[in-house]
Every structure is written in structure tokens, then in C-alpha cells.
Amino acid sequence: MASTTSGDVLPTGGRIFATVPDVFFIPEFVFGGLVWILVASTRVFMDNPLGWVMFVSVFCFVLTTLWFFIFLCGANQSSVWPTLDVAYHFVAVVFYLSASVDLAYITIVIGSTVNVLSTGELLKIYRLDIAAVVMSYVATLLYFIHAIFSAIRWKRS
């Protein structure tokens, strides 16, 4: 675990792969990227709010990448970084939770229009949306766990 002295609050370099909250960066990349890919591969209908889901997945993917490289390079040693870490991950949780609910709603709506005999493009979109919903909720859970452990680390610093 990271030291609690003020000069070395957050891990840097390869130590981010050994600390509990920071080890979640890689799964957040994977599941966030999968949400992005799965939603981007579906067809967007006129009244479909998947734009919010795409914004959240791209926003969190880019910021998590930036966050990861800041931690990897060691530019996170100021006293404000633990607070920023907690704040970013809680914002990501709220964004991903809202996007997950929107995506689940759209999947339910599409599922109600897909009948048992449907084998066309709508069934493919429905299956992709189901996978995206699962990945989105897993990403939400990962960001939530990361936020909780970051808050615990922030409280100790």
C-alpha cells in the first residue's frame, strides 16, 4: 500500500500496479473500451440517447488514460492529487451509472420490439446492447471500487 507521508502519498511508476485502488486502472480501460466499441457498433435510432453513453465512455476512457499516465510518470506528488483522484472517480461513477441506466432502458425498448422469429439486424443490435449493458455496469462497479479505495487513501493522507 502507498505510504501515508505527505511527500509520497500516491504511488508512482510501476508501484501503481501493486496498490489496491490503482490496480483498477487496467480493468477500467478494458471494460470502458468495450462499452465504447459495443455501443459504437450498434445502430442509433432517432430517439435513442446513446450519445450520452458514448460521451461517458469516451470521456472516462480518455481521462482514465491521462490519469494513468500522470500516475505512471510520477506527476501526482502534490497534496491536491488525492482529492482530485477521489473526485474524478466519483464523477466517473455517477456518469457511468447514468449511462448504464440509459443503455439498459434502450436495450429493454429494443428487446420489446424483437420477437422470437426476428433474426435480422435488430436482433444483432439487441445482442450488442445486452453485452454493452453488462460491460457498462462492470465498468461502473470498477470505478466505484476505485473511488471507495481512493477515498480511504485520501482520508489517511
How would you portray this structure in words?
By secondary structure, this protein is an all-alpha fold. The protein has one domain (13-156). 69% of the residues lie in helices and 0% in strands. It contains four helices and no strands. The protein has helices at 25-40, 50-73, 81-113, 121-156. Helix 1 packs antiparallel against helix 2 (50-73) and helix 1 (25-40) runs antiparallel to helix 4. The longest helix has 36 residues, at 121-156. The protein is elongated, with a radius of gyration of 18 Å. The two termini are 12 Å apart. GO terms for molecular function: structural constituent of myelin sheath. It is a multi-pass membrane protein. The chain crosses the membrane at residues 23-46, 52-74, 86-110, 130-152.
Question: What's the quick description here?
Answer:
The protein is mostly helical and 157 residues long. Helix content is 69%, strand content 0%.
Query: Helical element count?
Result: 4
Number of domains: 1
Mean pLDDT: 85
Straight-line distance between termini: 12 Å
Any low-confidence stretches, pLDDT <50, length ≥5?
Answer: 1-7
- The value of Rg in angstroms is 18 Å
Key traits:
disordered N terminus; 69% helix; mainly alpha; 157 residues; lipoprotein; 4 helices; structural constituent of myelin sheath; Myelin and lymphocyte protein
